[in-house]
Write a structure and sequence with these properties.
Length: 197
């Protein structure tokens, strides 16, 4: 049986570590679910707060990692709506998973690309704590304007929200209304290999 293809968009990924939790959460998801789904990650070719590309990856191309995952590392000069749209069109994923709320390149542009392409796929968005009171207190006006504008223009229309906790589910409803579709899924721990004697 053919595995469902999931295209995961995230600002930073392995071998980068500076972005912390989201990178580890995504890596754990890949290690736990890679046998059941065809997981492909789209990210930058640099780590958080770095400008030098990773030495170990080929930019603007698919890279096969040791965990059997495929990762596409965009260079800064190639990050555009046109190229993201082209990548989605080529891959024709069953699911697109967004790991941010405010990311221009890895949330907003993929959402616009899906709308432009009119492809039939589920889009899942994980706020990753960005709707918590503490997170919203940083640059609050800018974030409030974005959330209100996204509702006016239907940016997240038909998106399935991925909440890691009941608290995050409540935060999503508070920001986007009670009628949104939310799936609760806890962050997965790393896969553990058991050596049988």
């Amino acid at each position: 049986m053919k595995k469902r293809k999931v295209l995961i968009f995230i600002d930073w990924y392995l071998p980068g570590l500076n972005a912390g939790g989201p990178v580890r959460t995504c890596a754990n998801m890949v290690s736990r679910l890679n046998d059941e789904f065809d997981l492909k990650i789209v990210t930058r070719n640099t780590d958080l707060k770095e400008t030098k590309p990773y030495d170990s990856v080929k930019s603007n191309s698919w890279n096969q990692r040791d965990d059997n995952s495929s990762v596409y590392y965009f260079s800064a000069d190639q990050l555009s709506l046109k190229n993201i749209q082209k990548l989605i069109d080529e891959e024709q994923p069953d699911v697109i998973h967004l790991n941010s709320l405010f990311s221009f390149y890895f949330t907003i542009l993929p959402l616009i690309a899906v709308r432009n392409l009119k492809i039939k796929c589920n889009v899942v968005a994980g706020p990753r704590g960005m709707l918590s009171r503490g997170a919203l207190s940083i640059k609050p006006l800018k974030k409030k304007i974005f959330i209100e504008a996204s509702k006016i223009f239907g940016l997240f229309k038909n998106v399935i929200w991925h909440a890691s906790t009941e608290i995050e589910a409540a935060e999503i409803k508070k920001a986007f209304g009670n009628n949104v579709q939310i799936k609760l899924g806890i962050d997965l721990a790393p896969a553990v290999k058991i050596n049988r004697v």
